Amino acid sequence: MVIVKLNKLKLASASKNVRELQEKINNLPTTFDISKITLLRSINEELSNLTFENRSILDLTNYNALVASYEEYVNAINDEAVKVVNSWNIIGIVTTSLATMAFAYFGIRRKYM
Fold it and tell me: What angle do CA 34, 38, 42 make, to 5 degrees?
């Protein structure tokens, strides 16, 4: 509680850019969708340009929640991509097996007929 109050005092005396960034962070949604990617990148870039002292006075609760939601989004997409790749691999294996059997059949058929 004391740290929060101290950070609020520090924020009040921080530069206009830092205060504006805090306002942007406060207004962030906490659930990610693809339309938020530019906003997330923009805030990430602004944060990376701050000194450690300025970053440490910011309340990053909403930012951290949005980043966590983004990570869940990316993991879900990766999981779906793996399912698609695996299904195509199965189709490829079956197709290759059928082709191999067909070549073997016709090869045997020609050889012995």
Answer: 145
Q: Where are the alpha helices (DSSP H) in 49-60?
A: 52-56
Rounded distance, CA 48 to CA 31, Å?
22
CA-CA-CA-CA torsion sign (37, 61, 10, 53):
negative
Asked if pLDDT for residue 61 goes beyond 50, the answer is yes
What lies within 8 Å, CB to CB, of 21 at 6+ separation is 43, 46, 47, 50, 58
pLDDT: is 79 or 44 the higher one?
A: 44
User: What span, in angstroms and rounded, lies between the C-alpha atoms of 101 and 99?
Assistant: 5
